[in-house]
Write a structure and sequence with these properties.
This protein has helices at 15-27, 38-58, 72-83, 98-108, 127-133, 156-165, 250-266, 268-287, 316-327, 339-345, 363-380, and strands at 2-3, 66-69, 89-93, 113-117, 138-144, 169-173, 192-196, 208-212, 292-295, 307-311, 329-330, 332-334, 352-355. With 381 residues, the chain is α/β, with parallel strands linked by helices. The strands form three sheets. It has a seven-stranded mixed β-sheet with strand order 2-8-7-6-5-3-4, with helices on both faces.
Length: 381
């Protein structure tokens, strides 16, 4: 198997992640926050250590403002539904994942006003239109950091700074960039950061989080037991408890922490450069194959580690199936839960095939994947 679907979930995981999960399951029992005994405290310490590690990675200094969620989608919903109310206005981009697009649609049905900044391929974010979109009731700007279809990076510092100039908050969806690109919330004009644990952070599925800067208060998405203020019916008002009802995924968070520590040790820059090198090799090889259409920027530094393409008029899902059946190449095809981006690209009917290597991918695997695409393209002609 040649695994090139790391934008969906990274694989393989570092051995440290696997061992941390095993250690938590086999040797550290208990439920964090549910009891003062040693078993519960062991898991609580693991969870708090991961909060601290995430603060180190993302440039925050208060671990209590790291909220654990099931995934980035959960984190985005917590931020959007926790902040926006009827009569508020929110601005977003034209290439968002359904993790943003669908909550915003639901909020529109509740009286929240939504504006989408238009974009075209090569100019995915129109700053003139963005500035004109602000209204007196604009409360939030929300965008992804990098498109999960083409990998195109948005200029998040400028987007966030303009949002602040107009008195709005900025929510960043870092699903494709957390652990791959440096994100320093102490320097960036980002107020809320949603991230998955199972992609660039190299943790297990079922983990993710939301980081919230101190001046922001969110209404909980879920209410229930937190292990604190148990004598009261009302939800605790302090973080992280206010937004973390129910049992946390202790073993998963232990694995996530191990993934973050692996990244901190290896270095985000080293990981990014390796993945960009592999993407450049993919891009250069694919553009030499007759009948292949590439999408997004040809400058790898302007993309997350994603290369999107089509083979002639072949349906992308069919192309992906053939690549796996004939050569064991694992890719993602179709619409990638991002119809807005495909409308902009003009690929809503065909979708695209998406290759996304990790720094564990070998150059030999890249060569074999390119050979597989060439073989399919030649058979079509």
């Amino acid at each position: 198997m040649i695994y090139l679907d790391n934008a969906a979930t990274t694989w393989p995981k570092p051995q440290q992640v696997v061992l941390a999960i095993e250690e938590a399951l086999v040797h550290k029992g208990g439920n964090a926050g549910r009891g003062g005994h040693g078993a519960a405290m062991q898991v609580a310490r693991l969870i708090y250590q991961t909060r601290e590690d995430l603060c180190t990675l993302f440039g925050m200094d208060d671990p209590t403002r790291v909220i654990f969620t099931q995934n980035a989608t959960h984190a985005l919903n917590q931020a959007l539904f926790g902040l926006l109310q009827q009569g508020d206005h929110v601005i977003t981009s034209s290439i968002e994942h359904n993790a943003v697009a669908r909550p915003l649609w639901a909020l529109q049905q509740r009286g929240v006003e939504v504006s989408e900044v238009p974009g075209i391929s090569g100019k995915e974010f129109d700053f003139d239109a963005y500035r004109k979109a602000f209204r007196p009731n604009t409360k939030l700007v929300v965008t992804l950091h990098a498109s999960n279809v083409t990998g195109t990076l948005l200029p998040i510092q400028e987007i966030g700074q303009i949002a602040h100039d107009y008195g709005a908050y900025y929510l960043l969806d870092a699903a494709q960039t957390a652990g791959v690109f440096p994100i320093d919330m102490g320097r960036l004009a980002v107020d809320l950061l949603a991230f998955p644990g199972h992609k660039g952070l190299l943790g297990p599925q079922g983990t993710g989080g939301l980081i919230v800067k101190p001046e922001i208060r969110l209404e909980p998405l879920i209410y229930g037991g937190t292990g604190s203020l148990s004598e009261e019916d009302r939800q605790p008002g302090f973080l992280p408890d206010a937004l973390e009802s129910g049992t946390l995924n202790g073993a998963g968070i232990a694995g996530l922490g191990a993934g973050v520590r692996y990244i901190l040790k290896e270095g985000v820059d080293k990981i990014r450069i390796r993945e960009q090198t592999l993407c450049q090799k993919l891009w250069n090889g694919l553009r030499e194959i007759p009948g292949v259409t590439l999408y997004g920027s040809d400058i790898v530094e302007q993309r997350s580690p994603i290369v999107a393409f089509n083979i002639g008029e072949l349906d992308s899902v069919v192309a992906s199936f053939i690549l796996e059946e004939k050569a064991g190449v694992i890719a993602r095809a179709g619409l990638h839960c991002a119809a807005h981006a495909h409308r902009m690209l003009g690929t809503l009917d065909q979708g695209v095939v998406r290759f996304s290597p990790s720094h564990f991918t070998s150059e030999e695997e890249i060569e074999r994947a390119l050979l597989a695409v060439r073989t399919v393209a030649e058979e079509l002609n």
